[in-house]
Structure formats: C-alpha cells, structure tokens
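Usage

Read records sequentially. Each one opens with the input sequence:
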Amino acid sequence: GRAMKPIHEMSWTGMDGTIQKLKDYRGKAIILDFWATYCPPCIEEIPHLKALKTKYGDNLVLVGLHVGGEEDKPKIPEFVERLKIDYPLAYPEDSLTSFIFGNDSAIPQTAIFDREGKLVKKITGFSEPIRKELDQAVENYTTTIRPPAPRGIIFDRNGYVLARNVASYNIVITPANLPGDDADIQKIYRE
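and closes with the structure output:
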C-alpha cells in the first residue's frame, strides 16, 4: 500500500474548523473515541468517557471523532445536548480512521495514546469488562511518567560550572573540551 503519514502528523478538524494533530498533545495521555449518533454502545460509553475526563482533568485529552458520515452530521447537536457532551468533537482525517480501524469497522473504537504519543491500546465496543480495561489503561498511561535520565553538572577545580544539565552517560571528557589543564580534576556531580 502507499506509505502512510506518521501517526503523530494525523489530524482531525474540530466542529469549529480548527485542525489539530496528535503531536499537539505530546506530554498528555489522549483518548480518541470514534463514534456516531446511531450507535448504542457509543451512547453507553460517552458518560463513562466524561467521568474519566473529570477524574484526570488536564492530564487527559479526550476528543470524540465523528465517523457517522454526512447523513449523521445534522443529528450531532441534539445528540450533544441530550448526552451533555462537554469535550471537543471533531471529524478525523481518513488516514487516522483507517490507521486506528485497520480491518475492523465496528464502533465505538477507542484509541489510547501515552504521553509520548504512542498508540498503547485500542478497544472496540463497550461493555462492563471493556469499561474496566479502559479505566486500567487510562490509569496506567496518565500517571506513568518515565524518570528523566540522570543529569549532572561539570565543575572545574575552581568551582566554575563548565556544563550543566548534561546527560551523564553521553559525556566524554577530554582535555580538548575543558579549559586549561583541568581535565584530570573535573568532577561530575549528579543533581
């Protein structure tokens, strides 16, 4: 098949016309929920998605992506009103939908991305076991932040800072990159 664009470049267009991409949310967990107004399990899932958003607040981005087609669009406002949807809704670009759906066109499909923008879970349908699975996944990916690599400061023998915030594993100290003849006396301190 033709080369797909990288997932983080895939976008959706908000009901207000703004275009957003996955990479705009690096640093937060994301739920993309693919839905339509005529889909009973979608309707069942939405209150639960709202509860997750309430629980995790700014650590979780939730976007409802409408895949009901042109004939379903006029029904959206009433649907939003009835279900009190308070998170952003948008239309996904085709490449995003086909990337997530693969060969499975059932809805809802709920895709969870971690803070690095990696697709970590995809769930099709909604039921009590799925609800638990969704909760567990969101819990895992909103709260795990990988510890940063150890960082250090290099001082010369007079206590001057030569370099700070350097990852200690990729530093090579040679006389050439240190002023004067301090190469044998420099120390690496870990912050």
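Summary fields computed downstream for this record:
- The chain is about 25% helix and 25% strand.
- The CA atoms of residues 13 and 19 lie 4 Å apart.
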